[in-house]
Structure formats: structure tokens, C-alpha cells
Write a structure and sequence with these properties.
Blueprint lengths: L13 H16 L11 H29 L24 H16 L3 H30 L1 H9 L5
Helix pairs in contact: 1-3, 1-4, 2-3, 3-4
Length: 157
């Protein structure tokens, strides 16, 4: 993945962190005897589906807003502005929060407790290897405008 010098310099696509951990957890569960939440599959689907839908809607809304406002979605590309409308009024990271909700929805829907248990590692990786880089970059690039936004809006929710 090409990384622009005017960017957060994130060297991997963040969705791959979520996808990789989810797939790893679901594959490992095929080889581990106790690999179930122990709940009826109907309840798993009823619980997982709304989380999946909410997460996908949040991700798509946030990415669509970036595109409409003319800034790059990928953290390996330059940011052209600070987005503070739409879901960015409540969280500075609606795309990553949306990915986490999709992850949880899929882990529950596929009856994947091991995949579910890997989510904290995913969030730590996203926080330290992606969000921390993005925040430094945005503060360097946009200065006081970003610091004000950061003071007013929570990182996750």
C-alpha cells in the first residue's frame, strides 16, 4: 500500500486488522472443543444482525461524508479537512467504531466466542497503530482546529 508523506503514515488498511482477527478467531474455533456461546442460533442471529447493520451504516455514513466533503478515507492518504458533522459530532472515529460493531455482530452471529475474545487486541492495535498516528498527524496539520475538536468530541463514543 502506497503511503503519502502528507498522511498519518498508516502502513496497512485498518479493515484488515478487524477481518484478520475475526477470521483467525473463527478458524481457531473449528479446532477447539468449547467453541460456542451456548445460546440458541436464533438468538445469536437476532443479537448479531442489528449490531452488524448499525456498524455497517455507521461506517458507510462516515466514509460517504468524507467523500462528499472531499477528503480521503484511507489514512495513508492526505487529509484535506477536519470533518465534524454527521457521526463525527459524537465520535472522532465512527469508521473504526462501525468496524468494531460489525466485528461484534459477526462474531456473535457466527457463534464465535474466540473471535469475540480477540476484539480487545484488535482495538488496542487500532488505537496504538492507527488512531495514535492519525491524531498526531491531524494535530500537526490542523493545529488548534483539531485540538478544539479533540477536546469536544470523544475518541470512541
Amino acid at each position: 500500500m502506497a503511503v503519502e508523506t502528507d498522511s498519518a503514515r498508516v502502513r496497512f488498511p485498518p479493515p484488515l486488522v478487524y477481518l484478520g482477527a475475526l477470521l483467525l478467531g473463527l478458524v481457531v474455533e473449528r479446532f477447539v472443543p468449547l467453541r460456542s456461546f451456548g445460546v440458541d442460533w436464533h438468538l445469536l442471529i437476532i443479537t448479531g444482525a442489528p449490531l452488524l447493520i448499525a456498524g455497517a451504516a455507521m461506517m458507510l455514513a462516515a466514509a460517504g461524508l468524507f467523500r462528499r466533503l472531499g477528503t480521503n478515507v484511507r489514512p495513508s492518504q492526505p487529509a484535506t479537512k477536519i470533518v465534524t458533522t454527521g457521526p463525527y459530532r459524537w465520535t472522532r472515529n465512527p469508521m473504526y467504531l462501525g468496524m468494531a460493531l460489525v466485528y461484534v455482530g459477526l462474531a456473535i452471529g457466527f457463534d464465535g466466542p474466540i473471535a469475540f475474545a480477540l476484539l480487545p487486541l484488535v482495538l488496542i492495535t487500532i488505537q496504538t497503530q492507527v488512531i495514535a498516528h492519525e491524531e498526531r498527524y491531524l494535530e500537526d496539520k490542523f493545529g488548534e482546529e483539531y485540538r478544539r475538536y479533540k477536546a469536544d468530541v470523544r475518541r470512541w463514543f
